Amino acid sequence: MNVRHRQDAIVRCLRRNGTTTVADLAEAVGASRRTVLRDIGALRDEGFVIQSEPGRGGGLSLDPRSVQTTARLSVAEVFALLISVASMRAAGNLPFSGLADAGLAKIEKALPPDKIRDLRRFLDCLYIGQLSPLVDISDMGQMEPALLPEFETAFLQRLHLRFQYRDAKGAVTSRKVEPQAMLILPPLWYLVAWDPERNDFRHFRMDRISRPEYIKDAPFRRRKVPFEDNVHPIRRLPS
Fold this sequence. Notes:
Layout lengths: L2 H15 L1 E2 L1 H8 L3 H13 L4 E4 L5 E4 L12 H16 L6 H14 L2 H11 L2 E3 L18 H10 L3 E7 L5 E14 L2 E8 L4 E6 L3 E7 L16 E2 L6
Helix pairs in contact: 1-3, 2-3, 4-5, 4-6
């Protein structure tokens, strides 16, 4: 469990239980007492009023009036929401699209300026189109949850991305590429990257990617990806 998820779990426990102990929180989130105390300090710095009552029957409690109204979302989490809505719209099966757009707009406005800047840069890499009916999707699998956060860091910092890739015949190879864009052709999602070994762009089905990790090396340069005419970028955030 990463830091954000652990801290969110601590807040949920405090909301549900009213008063609880550090030991109970540590057991609930699978961390040490020291880690939980450090998380409590970080949550207090963010504006959560977490009170501590010493002695028998005491413990930690969360003042409900201090619960933040601003969404504590990362760029990758907001991006995941945006691309999910965009992919459903592209597939023509997005009900209540007006409400979905209004909700996303509220989330975007709640983000701090630095996250808005990263989100704009992240959205620049997202493209949507229609999948050819000739493409075989009978073997479509699930995408690894780790792919989006790794891709976010690799894209924003222009770092190489390394992963294992399984081709249509089942052969697995190790690839090291420069991530340039994400392409959604519902129901398939592709990572579009420059492959230095092949000196060309390659499309990688994201459900065939495993063990993704970004590499902290020299940043690569951004390249203009040649897309088909029926592929277009997602809407951008207002300035």
